[in-house]
Amino acid sequence: MRFSARHRASKGNQTPILEDAPRPLRIGYIKGVLGKFVGSTLRGYGQRQEPLDTQETHEAFIALIRDEADTWDYDRESSWGALTTHLKDCDWPEFYDFVEMTGKLLIAKDDDVPFGEPEHFEAYQAKVNDLFQEDRIGWSLNDRSELHRQTPSYLGKRMASTGSQLADRFANARVHYQKAQAYLYQHPMDEANSIKEIVSALECVSKALFPKASTLGDAIKLMRKDTRFSTHLLDALERLYVYANATPLVRHGHVQPGKPLLAEAELSLYIGVAYIRYLIAAGEGGSV
Questions:
Q1: Could you give the percent of the chain with pLDDT greater than 90?
Q2: Distance (Å, whole) CA 181 – CA 158
Q3: pLDDT, tens digit (0-9, with 9 covering 90-100), for 7-66
């Protein structure tokens, strides 16, 4: 990590960038990543062969974002300048469109060699994610070349483990749980629906444990009569349920405008993960 990035980190400026592609990031991507994978696909004297052709890649980008081609209709000799100028000037979501698209093109290129080891995409993915982490970008490129919000490793493992617990009689909860994560970690983010889905996942788990309950509120009342569950922890679970019901755009129709904050949606998801694990463990006598 370069000095300026370490200095920024030491000042505690760690807020992830989710709704922008700053110019230094674009320059870093063009200079430090793109040139190693996009260029000339023909090896000439003193030239390095790249897996993707510059002009073909740019044409694919123009088609993807439905842009006018005339502005970028340069000859092959100036195709690199056209592409990089476009990447510097395009809207920030389109820049990330290009990052994903290039990864998918590299995956296809790797697949063209049926018995070869994946080479180009894995290297590209690693370079992109290193750059994003250094520049405080809140997105990371997954194995399908799709950008998802970065998750701390310990939290990601906990969330994956929780998802694996939602099987058999808890299978319906798994669908809501996956939706809650997708709404919060894919673009565009949808905070309200993430809260709705994690509460719905909790409701499914609770109703599986207490089949006579018709709502999460009913299940909490039954849990209070069951010595396996802490009444103090149930108080907090009930407050989460009340919050979801009382917040605009989440579970019920509301006259007042507004929507939940990203921080509120994250808190609801993380609390929901913990409560799912707790309810299953307490209800089945297992361990978390």
A1: 59
A2: 13
A3: 565 555 567 888 899 999 999 999 999 999 998 766 555 555 788 999 999 999 999 999
Domain 153-284 belongs in CATH node 1.10.10:
no
Comparing CA positions, the residue from 154, 165, 152 lying closest to residue 276 is 165
Closest by CA to 275, choosing from 248, 241, 251, is 241
Strand partners, 282: none
Query: What b/e sequence results for 251-281 when a residue is b if at least 16 CB atoms lie within 10 Å of its CB, and e otherwise?
Result: beeeeeeeebeeebbbebbebbbbbbbbbbe
Q: What is the mean pLDDT of residues 169-193?
A: 89
SS3 readout for the chain = CCHHHHHHHHCCCCCCECCCCCHHHHHHHHHHCHHHCEECCCCCCCCCCCCEEHHHHHHHHHHHHCCCCHHHCCCHHHHHHHHHHHHHHCCHHHHHHHHHHHHHHHHHHHHCCCCCCCCHHHHHHHHHHHHHHHCCECEEECCCCCEEECCCHHHHHHHHHHHHHCCHHHHHHHHHHHHHHHHHHCCCCCHHHHHHHHHHHHHHHHHHHCCCCCCHHHHHHHHCCCCCCCHHHHHHHHHHHHHHHHCCCCCCCCCCCCCCCHHHHHHHHHHHHHHHHHHHHHHHCCCC
- Compute the chain's Rg from CA coordinates: 24
What is the pLDDT at residue 149?
85
In the chain, which residues fall in CATH 1.20.120?
A: 153-284
